[in-house]
Design a protein that fits this description.
α3 packs across α4. β1 and β2 form a beta hairpin. The chain has seven helices and seven strands. The protein is an alpha/beta fold. It has two domains: 173 residues, 3-Layer(aba) Sandwich (Ribosomal Protein L4, Chain: A), CATH 3.40.1370.10; 41 residues, no CATH class.
Length: 233
């Protein structure tokens, strides 16, 4: 019975539904297997850390004493000068000399299995859904790209800070409208990452992309999942 209760609770995960003008139309049920799981913080931390590490260029480099030009001759004789013995002016203690134990080019990427990345993504989406930060737009019916329309939609739905917008390849007009806004990141369902979801304060889907958010899942949003404003829930 405990399992059945948990399943019923997950089935009630919802998100507000808006029109492209920012008018609230009602609510839409979200897939509980994507937006209603218990976030795995350990996996989430490991995957996000690996993603940030993979983004590092790793091209940092300093020259060792063998790579610095010059210094082939001994600067002075070994004994009799009263000064400390020296074999090369390119030793680390000399100005212009090589760097001892300096950074070398390296690959910072970490291996993260596919199932781990998926679990981290679902954990991030579930965490945002629990915070009521997941919003759904019914459809973008804009005929021409206008940044003003995009900014007006964000203001109407209350997305005033960092926003992740999940569009499909057919939403070209919407993508062009949003791409000039500084705090908006656009992604496709198949390219979502846990870091992108956690970076954003609000995650906006369309009715087409919300069912494909987790990837590899058979759940599809149907008409019965939509509750229009004014209808009985």
């Amino acid at each position: 019975m405990a399992t059945a209760k948990q399943s019923d609770t997950r089935a009630e995960v919802k998100a507000p539904l808006f029109s492209s003008d920012g008018l609230r139309l009602g609510e839409v049920k979200l897939d509980p297997e994507i937006f209603g799981i218990e976030p795995n913080l350990a996996v989430l931390h490991q995957v996000v850390t690996a993603q940030l590490a993979g983004a590092r260029a790793g091209t940092h480099k300093t020259k060792k004493r063998s790579e610095v030009r010059g210094g082939g001759a001994k600067p002075w004789r070994q004994k009799g000068t009263g000064r400390a013995r020296a074999g090369s002016i390119r030793a680390p203690q000399w100005r212009g000399g090589g760097v001892a134990h300096g950074p070398e080019p390296r690959d910072y990427s970490q291996r993260t299995p596919k199932k781990m990345r998926r679990l981290a993504l679902l954990s991030a989406l579930s965490a945002r859904a629990a915070e009521d930060a997941v919003l759904v737009v019914e459809a973008f019916d804009w005929t021409s790209p206008k940044t003003r329309d995009a900014a007006g939609l964000l203001a109407a739905v209350g997305a005033k800070s960092k926003t992740l917008l999940v569009l499909n390849s057919l939403d070209e007009v919407a993508g062009v409208s949003f791409r000039n806004l500084p705090q908006v990141v656009i992604s496709e369902p198949g390219h979502l990452t846990a870091y992108d979801v956690l970076w954003a304060r609000n995650v906006i889907f369309t009715t087409q992309t919300v069912s494909a958010a987790g990837g590899g899942h058979a759940y599809d949003v149907s008409k019965s999942d939509f509750v229009k404003e004014g209808e009985a829930s």
